Amino acid sequence: MILSLFGTNGVRALANKELTPEMALRLSQSFGAFLRRRSNKKTPAVAVGTDTRITGAMLKNAVIAGLLSSGIRVIDLGIVPTPSLQYYVKNATVDAGLVVTASHNPREYNGIKLIAGDGTEFSHEDEAVVEEIYNSGKFTYADWSQTGELLADPNANDLYVGGILSRVDQTAISGRKLRVVVDTGSGAGSLTLPVLLQRLGCQVLTVGAQPDGTFPWRNPEPVADALGEMSVLIRMFNGDLGIAQDGDADRAVFMDENGEFIDEEIMLAIIGKFVLQKEKENGTKTGTKIGPVVTTVSTSNRLTDIAKEAGADILYTKVGSIDVGRKMMESCAVYGGEGNGGMIFPNHQICRDGGMAAAFVIESMIKNDVKASQFKKMVPEYFNAKTKIKTSPKDPKSVMEKLTADILSPATKKEIGYADADTIDGVKLRFKTGWLLIRPSGTEPIIRIVSESKTKEEADKFLKIGEGIVLKNLEKK
């Protein structure tokens, strides 16, 4: 299934250049037609929200117009984190959701993400149907007397924060009064994360926590190099933990009490360790096997080792939270996510949730009596290497087809010496001491290459093998 409109995670493009009000209108009309065909209700309802981007109001109004013209009742939630809107859809009497956000993309981008009636992200199959309607122009225009009703609900963020609080031990957390430094990057998490932590009894110091769609403090992606101020404040404030979020707050990254950035792969694994520990305790009481863990083919073996140690199966998907979430639903998984700060806690909701991740990490630190700086030593050590190689626009997939056939040939297997391979997403080669993944980007004309091993030297060696394969196949064009 090849989609030209939807990427790995919704629609994202340069605001008012590629993603224009006209495009947003047409996309929401397509969404409206999809809902009218699928729903048995006369007037389906959709919750709509935005992150803080200054182009959000422009696109949101276009989206609302398209939904209303389709005879859809719209509830405007205002500025909300994506997981807040998803929690609202899951728990309120609405049939779907739409959030205007480009998540971690730079300031000049915006995007549109569709949410299913259970609060999960739209499946790729349903996105394909919406895209087909978009391309055909077969919209559903309601009679003038049945155009949708526009309402507003300012309480979505309160509902969301309350939902997280109900999933953690508030008494244990509030008794410790951890010092937490927060950098929400002027994104949607500015309206929820400081409030959540204060209600948990933490002492909170914020930086960049004012909603501002120009993102004056840093770009929306919370990479280590952009979090220098938070690092300084942790040390000055004698903090226990630092938490930063991306533009729509569906992801969270962490710093320890020394102001050191904790690798996202380590955080994915350590949180998995704590989740499985809790599940094992509950399973011992009920005599049930621990449910599986789901992650992507690009995730470090740290999580794989943690799952195996706990006696849990681990399942792999393509890169992208949509695929992870769907596989979690199919397999009744107890935990899932990606090594980019996107953790999923299915007992709360099946979507990436930066707020839930923050609360769970704090609870786990307290209940296990550990400092954040100890996390690294609590999970297996691996070394990663990564690079990317540009291709022609719209060309990565054709390059991947050629190099996959090359890699899987008996001659290349003998030459490289890998043990086995899978093609879940691109092609992943497993060696006795590590792995190599070569896959096309879902958002850019590039081939991504990632490797991992127990030593840096071997990780670099595997990466070189991957680069050689890609460049050889590019030269064949």
Task: Provide the descriptors you would attach to this structure in a database record.
phosphoglucosamine mutase activity; Alpha-D-Glucose-1,6-Bisphosphate, Chain A, domain 3; phosphoprotein; single chain; 15 helices; 6-stranded mixed beta sheet; EC 5.4.2.10; 5-stranded mixed beta sheet; magnesium ion binding; A-D-PHexomutase_a/b/a-III; 477 residues
How would you portray this structure in words?
This protein is α/β, with parallel strands linked by helices and 477 residues long. The strands form four sheets. The protein has a six-stranded mixed sheet with strand order 1-5-4-2-3-6, with helices on both faces. Strands 8-7-9-10-11 form a five-stranded mixed sheet, with helices on both faces. Strands 13-12-14-15-16 form a five-stranded mixed sheet, with helices on both faces. The protein folds into four domains: 144 residues, Alpha-D-Glucose-1,6-Bisphosphate, Chain A, domain 3, CATH 3.40.120.10; 100 residues, Alpha-D-Glucose-1,6-Bisphosphate, subunit A, domain 3 (Alpha-D-Glucose-1,6-Bisphosphate, Chain A, domain 3), CATH 3.40.120.10; 115 residues, Alpha-D-Glucose-1,6-Bisphosphate, subunit A, domain 3 (Alpha-D-Glucose-1,6-Bisphosphate, Chain A, domain 3), CATH 3.40.120; 93 residues, 2-Layer Sandwich (TATA-Binding Protein). The protein has 15 helices and 21 strands. GO terms for molecular function: magnesium ion binding; phosphoglucosamine mutase activity.
